[in-house]
Amino acid sequence: MTTPKINFKEIKDWTIDNFFGSKLGILLTLFSTILIVYFITAIFSFLSAAEWEVVSINKRLLLLGRLPEEDTWRAWPIFWLFCFIFCSSIGAWGNPKKRELLLLLLAFLMPTAIFFSMTYIVHIFMTIIIGSVSYLGSKIIRKTTYSRVLKKSLISLWILLIPLAFSILIIGGGPQSNLWGGFLLNILLASVAVVAGFPLGILMAVGRSTKLPVIKTTCTVYIETVRGAPLVAWLLLAWFVLPKFLPNLFGLNEISVVIRAMIVLSFFASAYIAEVIRGGLQSIPSGQLEAADALNLGYVDKMRIIVLPQAIRVVIPAIVSQFIGLFKDTSLVFILALTDLLQVGRIIPEQDPKFFGKQIEALLVVASLFWVVSVVLSNLSSRIEKNLGIGTR
Amino acid sequence: MIQVFFFIFVALLGIYLFSRAFQLELSLSHFRSRAGFGLSHTFLVDYTSNDSRWVAYFTGVVNTIRVCLVAIFLTTILGTIMGVARLSKNFLTSRIAWTYVEVLRNTPLLIQIIFWQIVFLQLPQISEAITFGNTTAISNRGILLPWISDNGGAQIWFIFLGIVAAGSLYLSYFLNKREDESGKYFSISGKKINGNLTGIIFFILVTVVTFFAFGRPVSIDIPEIIQNNKGTWMQSGGFDLSPEFAAILFALVIYTGTFITEIVRGSIQSLSRGQTEAAEAIGLSKYQAMTLVILPQALRSIIPPLTNQFLNLTKNSSLAVVIAYPDLFMVSRTIMNNSGHALPVFFLILLTYLFLSLCISLVMNLINRRVTRIGT
């Protein structure tokens, strides 16, 4: 799109070209204007009548579910850790564009505006400080000779993020896993599923692309079976029969529903990730394989050193979009009677007669939280794509 | 060598899982017993709670197929329109399509389903239903649309019309081919009538003639809202689009439409710009350029990912359980809860979805073969 300079003729030309170029153009402009006016009036009339008390009273429930009051502090270090790694990564890798920075600002300000409370003003202040210090710090380190060390340590921190988050949540007698809920649960479920499903996905993808018939058949059957049924069906299966299939050791057959959901989501994610990685494996030119053979590398070394690093590099953006899909799908745990964000958003207007008929307000807040995370992630994925130079070669 | 170890491992795992599974009830014999629950939507099936669980399950399958077919049809149209709009030179139009994709693709489908259900339930009550000249009534009991009703012999007439439709398709195919080969065509007072038009005229003529020949087999059934003598409001006649069906349909169409928009946009963009310019150069209008030059070529790269979206849509239709639309998943969940035997029912679900997916893939592969053959 051409941005017109302050030049009257150009503006005029641009306007005519855009809106009144032809009969069809005029018709489209008219139709679009009507549509936009209709939606804007609808949104305004909704907003003028909306009452957000249903959300402001239940902030904690939406974010953390039934996590006990004395354990609320645990959420903050996890958030700060994430903020530290995220902001350092931005400083270390990208020169973020204005648009991307604006989006991040929106992603930070929108939840803050919804969930702001004076009790946590210090915490929010801390978050801002941690974010900006780590961003500036890594930007400075990036220009020194230590930039490789910084990047490597950041990558290992990303991998360690989930175990660290869990240890913060559990350390020193944390809350029981069936008390996890709200938005925290959605994020935990999606992250665990991708982190646990990733190695299994790689194995399955490699297995499916080998020439060994037994392994190939097994992997294919696994992938296609898991992809064949919808996620809710698998979750329901976990609800009914998963405990009966686990050995009667260490109380494994009485695992909590949250852990069951994590197991199912991991297996589910692994099948989809396997298909994505298989696409990456197929994109490796055969010259690479021949070169590896010429070097007399064994199969394992060939895969580990030559093929997989290239294949995974290509499919990172696709895996991020799988993560987005999975993140949206974590709302399906309603079928296990878990109180995730959406479930809380559905229940609270029904609990209190004062809030009866305020479902849409609660639902909109829930949707906007999901939306912010998804949009930031999908921008991240296109950013990674650019940084890796995929598609430009 | 690795294979042997792997085989042993898989075999051991399999034996373990099977030994566990055989401790459970695995037969589907309980499906023959009485279902004992009612279903709110029974489409084409006469189901009552006294029927067996098989009938209940079958009703669920029919409901799933019904919502999926309508949704696939509508979402393809919506996605194509939005995909073309996304590339429109008109700033406003392309922004509308962009906003649609960015907002709705990134919110979970489940939220959208619940949102539409709330919207449909907040419509006015039946006594204050919104009507459009007595043909359509919108209330929180659903949307009533005019529909056709059987005056006897409608089924035979429809089958006959199907044959006629196939015949007129063949007629236009034949006439087009003849025109391509020998250059002959029909003309009325010097105006050319091409094969497609002849086919359509033939079809309409036969339809009108047989409509009277069969003794008016169908009539249009206009919905009515009446208050009976006890003061209760009743709705009768017409086609009742229930709030649940409408909610799941809207959500599926709009959510999947965003993905199709992106597919269509990507495919059109991947065509070289020369195609549009060439179409302009030979004097085609924008509409003609789009339908005759751009879309037919873009279709080749659209169809494979489109198939994937259709499969996703079919699987996503199981989310109808959240608003109690009795699709196959909800019926099976009820059966699981009632009987307590989850595993065999689950395998049945798996097989049914596999069967539906295979059907969609088969049809789409046929279309794909036809599309890729054009011009080669």
Topology:
The complex is a heterodimer of chains A (393) and B (376).
Chain A: H1 8-19, H2 23-49, H3 53-57, H4 59-64, H5 75-93, H6 98-115, H7 121-143, H8 147-170, H9 182-208, H10 213-228, H11 231-240, H12 242-245, H13 257-282, H14 286-294, H15 299-329, H16 341-351, H17 359-388
Helix pairs in contact in A: 5-7, 5-8, 6-17, 9-10, 9-13, 9-15, 9-16, 10-13, 11-13, 13-15, 15-17, 16-17
Chain B: H1 2-21, H2 53-86, H3 91-105, H4 109-121, E1 130-132, E2 136-139, E3 142-145, E4 147-150, H5 154-182, E5 186-188, E6 191-193, H6 195-213, E7 218-221, E8 224-227, E9 233-236, E10 239-241, H7 243-270, H8 273-281, H9 286-316, H10 328-339, H11 342-373
Antiparallel strand pairs in B: 1-2, 2-3, 3-10, 4-7, 5-6, 8-9
Helix pairs in contact in B: 2-3, 2-7, 2-10, 3-7, 4-7, 5-6, 7-9, 8-9, 9-11, 10-11
List the strand order in the largest sheet of chain B: 1-2-3-10
Largest sheet of chain A: none
What's the tally of helices of chain A?
Answer: 17
Structural class of chain B: alpha+beta
Helix percentage of chain B: 55-70%
CATH superfamily of the largest domain in chain A: MetI-like
How many extended strands of chain A?
A: 0
- First-last Cα distance of chain A: 25 Å
Secondary-structure-based class of chain A equals mainly alpha
- Which CATH architecture of the largest domain in chain A would you pick? Orthogonal Bundle
Helix and strand element order of chain B: HHHHEEEEHEEHEEEEHHHHH
- What's the total helix number of chain B? 11
Description:
The complex is a heterodimer of chains A (393) and B (376). With 393 residues, chain A is mainly α. Chain A folds into three domains: 8-49; 70-174, no CATH class; 177-393, Orthogonal Bundle (MetI-like fold), CATH 1.10.3720.10. Chain A has 17 helices and no strands. Chain A has helices at residues 8-19, 23-49, 53-57, 59-64, 75-93, 98-115, 121-143, 147-170, 182-208, 213-228, 231-240, 242-245, 257-282, 286-294, 299-329, 341-351, 359-388. In chain A, helix 5 packs parallel to helix 7 (121-143) and helix 10 crosses helix 13 (257-282). In chain B, the strands form four sheets. Chain B has a four-stranded antiparallel β-sheet with strand order 1-2-3-10. Chain B has a two-stranded antiparallel ribbon with strand order 4-7. In chain B, strands 5-6 form a two-stranded antiparallel ribbon. The longest helix of chain B is centred in the first third of the chain and has 34 residues, at 53-86. In chain B, helix 5 (154-182) packs antiparallel against helix 6. Chain B starts with a helix and ends with a helix. Chain B is α+β, with helices and mostly antiparallel strands. The mean pLDDT of chain B is 84. Chains A and B meet through helix 1, helix 2, helix 10, helix 11 and helix 15 of A and helix 1, helix 3, helix 4, helix 9 and helix 10 of B.
